[in-house]
Structure formats: structure tokens, C-alpha cells
């Protein structure tokens, strides 16, 4: 076993040599930039970075700032609702399309199309749709329901749910495609066996199919969660963080601190907290996916 490792090391030498510039760039830009950000989060950097150490002062100020706390609360609400709903909607759509329906390619393309749009376009589209003057509320009132009210983006208590609608509209198609790929990878003999045993379709999905799709669910979870943590452009395009600070999110807080308030230290501290959040998701996933397979080998 050990004697074969040197041979494997020198296999595909050309491909490995060609990958060196990319690896060096990644180490220098991403890893180096990450370390630089973390280091300067412990400094009193203003308009320009400077090595004036203040310890944990930036983090203490961060967690004492109402705007940051509101952004964390909004991210938690948006994230939990998005995770549950996008998985449910995406899986149901995939299960329906997996029934070999007519015009499957067209339907799949239509559902996936919103994901091809940028978050800026999505935010502007849904800003118009949810506008009470000429959006859904205006249309329904035009039908005779004069008392109908639907203006989530103008109500600070529920504004984040207006953003959620736009996020679900764009993200459900991606989850549907990933789930559909997982469903198409299930052996048809499994379905035949479940039908022979008289297992209802819903039970087959819950107790047989979904457990078999664990790798697909885990990968989709990582993609969705990392997208949730760094959500920025949808918020800026749709609400600008308003009304007030009702739809503030951590990524927007970082941008505001670094480029509007000229407080790089506070922005670095906030981005470090975002990095920690992503690391807490990605590292366990990597261990689960790759560590487990190595132990199995």
C-alpha cells in the first residue's frame, strides 16, 4: 500500500504542474487575504489599515451595536425560513418532475430561469411586484378588493419576509435541479421493490429515498447556507436595508462600515465573524464527506 503512494504522487505530472499557478494564487489571495483580515480585526483601523492593536475592542463594540444585532436576527430569520422552505419547495418540484411529465424540459427551464438572473435583477423585479402602488396590492384592489393590503417591504415588522419571497423565487430552481439529479440517480429497482411491498409513495420518499440522497442533501445544504450568510446584493437592490434598519444583514453591515463609515477595523471584525460562521458549516461538511470516505478506504 505504502509503495504505491510515490507512484500516485507523480501521476498526471503535467496537470499538477499546470495547477501550480492557481494554487499559488488561491493561497496568496484567499488564504493570505483571510489572515490579513483576521489580524487587522484586532486593530484600530479607520480609513486606512494600521497596526494599532486594541485587542477584542472591535468585537465588543460589534456585539454592542444594535445595527449588527438586528442584522444577525434578520439573517437568522431569513436563513431558517429559507432553508426549510427552499428544501421543501425544491424537493416537491423535483419529485413532481421526476414523474416523467409532459414538457419536462420546458417546465424545468422555466423553474430554473430565475436562478440565471442576478440578485440585483431579482431584487428590483420583486421590489416592483411588492410595491403597493403598482404591484400585487394595486392589481388585487383593481379587481374589487379595496381593503386588500400586501406591502411587506414597507412594513418594518415583516420586511425581511418580503426579501425571503424573492430569495425563494430565485433559489428554489437550483435546489430542484440538485434534488432531481439525486432522484434520477436512484435505482428503479428500489421503486419497484417499494411498490411490491405496498409502501405508499410518501413513505417511500421519507424512509427510503431521502436517506439514500444524503450526499445530495448535504451538498445542497452547504451551497444554500453559504449563499444565505453572504447575502448582500438582493438586500441592497430590493430594500437598501430599510425601512430603517429592518432588513440589515451582516454582509451589508461590513460594506457600510468599511466604505461608508470608514471604519475598517469594525468591518474586519464583522467579516471575521461571517468567516467563522461559514467555517462552522464547511469544515464539518468536509470532514463528513471526505474524512468518512478515507476511513472507509
Automatic annotation (TrEMBL):
Residue ranges of every copy of the ABC transmembrane type-1 domain listed in the record: 72-287
Protein name: Lactose transport system permease protein LacF
TM region positions: 20-42, 75-97, 109-129, 158-183, 204-229, 267-288
Lineage, uppermost ranks: Bacteria, Pseudomonadati, Pseudomonadota, Alphaproteobacteria, Rhodobacterales
PANTHER family per the UniProt record, alphabetical: ABC TRANSPORTER PERMEASE PROTEIN
Location relative to the cell: Cell membrane
Gene3D superfamilies documented for this protein: MetI-like
Annotated InterPro entries: ABC_transporter_permease (IPR051393), MetI-like (IPR000515), MetI-like_sf (IPR035906)
Chain's gene name: lacF_2
Pfam families: BPD_transp_1
Amino acid at each position: 500500500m505504502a509503495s504505491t503512494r510515490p507512484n500516485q504522487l507523480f501521476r498526471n505530472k503535467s496537470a499538477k504542474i499546470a495547477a501550480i499557478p492557481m494554487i499559488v494564487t488561491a493561497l496568496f489571495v484567499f488564504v493570505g487575504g483571510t489572515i490579513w483580515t483576521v489580524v487587522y480585526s484586532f486593530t484600530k483601523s479607520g480609513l486606512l489599515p494600521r497596526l494599532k492593536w486594541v485587542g477584542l475592542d472591535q468585537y465588543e463594540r460589534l456585539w454592542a451595536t444594535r445595527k449588527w444585532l438586528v442584522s444577525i436576527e434578520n439573517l437568522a430569520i431569513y436563513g431558517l425560513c429559507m432553508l426549510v422552505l427552499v428544501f421543501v419547495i425544491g424537493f416537491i418540484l423535483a419529485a413532481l418532475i421526476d414523474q416523467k411529465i409532459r414538457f419536462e424540459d420546458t417546465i424545468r427551464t422555466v423553474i430554473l430561469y430565475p436562478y440565471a438572473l442576478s440578485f440585483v435583477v431579482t431584487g428590483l423585479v420583486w421590489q416592483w411586484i411588492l410595491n403597493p402602488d403598482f404591484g400585487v396590492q394595486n392589481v388585487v384592489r383593481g379587481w374589487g378588493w379595496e381593503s386588500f393590503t400586501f406591502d411587506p417591504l414597507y412594513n418594518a415588522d415583516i420586511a425581511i419576509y418580503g426579501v425571503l419571497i424573492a430569495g425563494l423565487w430565485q433559489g428554489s430552481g437550483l435546489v430542484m435541479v440538485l434534488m432531481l439529479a439525486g432522484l434520477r440517480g436512484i435505482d428503479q429497482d428500489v421503486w419497484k421493490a417499494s411498490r411490491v411491498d405496498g409502501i405508499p409513495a410518501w413513505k417511500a420518499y421519507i424512509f427510503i429515498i431521502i436517506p439514500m440522497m444524503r450526499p445530495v442533501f448535504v451538498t445542497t445544504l452547504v451551497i444554500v447556507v453559504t449563499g444565505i450568510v453572504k447575502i448582500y446584493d438582493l438586500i441592497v437592490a430590493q430594500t437598501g436595508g430599510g425601512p430603517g434598519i429592518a432588513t440589515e444583514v451582516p454582509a451589508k453591515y461590513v460594506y457600510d462600515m468599511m466604505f461608508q463609515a470608514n471604519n475598517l477595523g469594525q468591518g474586519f471584525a464583522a467579516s471575521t465573524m461571517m468567516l467563522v460562521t461559514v467555517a462552522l458549516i464547511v469544515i464539518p461538511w468536509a470532514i463528513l464527506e471526505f474524512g468518512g470516505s478515507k476511513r472507509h478506504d
